[in-house]
Amino acid sequence: MRIRIDARDLPGLTCPPVVPDDSSHPVYRNIHVAVQRRDRRTELLHPHPGNALFATWILECTTTASPNGTDVRGPYVQGRPGERFIYLSWGTVDDAGAFTMFRRAKLMLNAVPTDILDAAAGSGLLVGRLGLTDAHGMPLCARVVPPHITWCAEHARAGGSSQRQEGAPDRL
Fold this sequence. Notes:
mainly beta, 4-stranded mixed sheet, 1 helix, 6% helix, 48% strand, disordered C terminus
């Protein structure tokens, strides 16, 4: 199975301090977002600039039946069975291309409705659609569950053939 994440409404290239006029919190510049590999914080899949019109990632996964339902595993799937998730990491990119993470969003796979996850395991594609700007104009972070993300099952060939495929992480 594949998981495709379709993101829109990115927040821009700068992220102001959480508390306005607070000089103790930095302004983040040249921000990017990427999928973080399991157990490898610095290995990122397809970083996108924060001012992109949209961002799409496709992750190769495996599914197995378990007593708690369908379990999803893969190089970019984090957590234990029943608590699986995908990290979207927000970071700054310096002039040398180094990514420094400052925030993450946790796309909770255990919040995917059971019927949708089972259908995706059969059809080959689970699609999550979400906006990446929170209610305060900041990069989306923390746990992401419906209604902030919409999950659906699609056929693996529908929309997948022209999208970027998972491979080696991009270098900035």
